[in-house]
Amino acid sequence: MSNAFRELLKKVGSGTHTSKALTRQEAATAMGMMLTQEATPAQIGAFLIAHRIRRPTGEELAGMLDAFDQYGPQVPAIQSEKPVVILSQPYDGRDRTLPLGPLTSLVLAAAGIPVLQHGGDVMPTKAGVPLIDIWQGLGIHWRSLSLGQIQEILQNTDIGFVYLPEHFPLAHGLVPYREQIGKRPPLATVELIWCPYSGPAHIVAGFVHPPTELMMREALNLRGITEFTTVKGLEGSCDLPRERTGIIGLNRSLEGSESFSRLRLHAQDYGFAGKNPPWQGLSPGLREIKAVLAGEPGELHQALVWNSGFYLWQFYPMQTLEEGIQLTQELLEKGIVQEKLNQLQKMTHCRSISA
């Protein structure tokens, strides 16, 4: 048993009226002791569920991210005039709507915007489809690649993926606790705003509940990150909804000062009203994705154009959302997105064989 960890646990787990938030340094220490398993399984489980009940503060999240930086991987920086977009998704996956993340990454990369994703395998508590399975179904083999190979692929194709079991086994070692405590721990929020990249980056983080967004914003601001985007997306992802208002937070640094603005987008105002395609399993999902890449129209095509059009507007950059939508349609119609997938398939296949 770690006596040092026990003191931190007592602080956050003392009850509604007596528990106290950890300082940033204390949160970093606690996270480090959990990653290295210096804390016992009983202590780790107790800490995660106590923190889940009390809810972490932005300062605590900042400390946990400090520990992720200390113990976790970072893809070395590539040569790029544009910051790498960190397109985050909940690690425990999706089970209601078809994920757009891989397709959106391909569209952005086809436009010359580098994108880095990260995640693991099927994970509690939701146990939805993880992005790695969709990439695998598209012929992209991320699982066996080293960080150096990920950097090379990111440099040449503008797409990369950090795979938790291979690249951050310490964090992967905490996955079983999610099943045992039966609830998403604060780690799930940390993962949404983690940046496993050493160069200039722009984090895009999805959220469900407004208090979570406030915590994420505070944590990122404390860490000196002034350029990031938050999205009240589908199932906590970065995928913009079509059937309801898209609520987006834009944190930007302008002329030395930081500003936060709220953007509300209505898909129907741009001709994209409808519902995002439901998730019906990996095989049907892959068929839909491949059909879109082949140029077939449908609901998934509409969802992708709406989603990617927004991100092209933000990162290309363009003057209007309509320009982003138009460019997305052109990239799909001309087969440039499919060409990007073909390029990525060849590179990852060659590197996975040599790994």
What tags apply to this protein structure?
glycosyltransferase; alpha/beta; aromatic amino acid biosynthesis; Transferase, Pyrimidine Nucleoside Phosphorylase, Chain A, domain 3; Pyrimidine Nucleoside Phosphorylase, Chain A, domain 2; amino-acid biosynthesis; 2 domains; 49% helix; 7 strands; 355 residues; 7-stranded mixed β-sheet; Anthranilate_Pribosyl_Tfrase
Structure write-up:
The protein is of the alpha/beta class. It folds into two domains: 69 residues, Transferase, Pyrimidine Nucleoside Phosphorylase, Chain C (Transferase, Pyrimidine Nucleoside Phosphorylase, Chain A, domain 3); 256 residues, Pyrimidine Nucleoside Phosphorylase, Chain A, domain 2 (3-Layer(aba) Sandwich), CATH 3.40.1030. 49% of the residues lie in helices and 12% in strands. Helix 1 packs parallel to helix 3, helix 2 packs across helix 4 and helix 4 crosses helix 12. The longest helix is centred in the last third of the chain and has 19 residues. 48% of the residues are buried. This is Anthranilate phosphoribosyltransferase family protein. One of its GO terms (molecular function) is glycosyltransferase activity.
